[in-house]
Amino acid sequence: MILLQQNTVNDVVLTLRELTTIENPFYLFVFTSDDTNISKIFTGVDISTNVNTYNEFNIELTSGAEDLLDSVINLPYKGYYTYNIYSMVTEGNLDINNVTELVESGKVYVNDTVKPVKTTYAGGNNTKAVYNG
Is 67:74 a contact under the CB 8 Å cutoff? Predict the structure, then answer.
């Protein structure tokens, strides 16, 4: 599972090379919200130092402007997403019809950076009733 925080750059490490059959691949990410069924399609630059062992990406969740070709995306809803990652031969491709193969699927959890506010209830009767009978 991939855990992403809102309004920050998230370091994501995957093993995409295991199922990739093309040389020098680029990757297309598709995140689909489990709640809304709306998808976000984007690409990112693999920044790993050993692509035969692992693939590393910086995925930035922003509430501002997106850059879908550099993995800067806006996912406004907290919660679970299903992800599919495809390999492709063309850099900068956002068309899912031009991918080569599906190389990984899984779940993403988007967590908001806003801390919940604790609220307490101060009203009501604090007397306990006891029944004997």
Answer: no
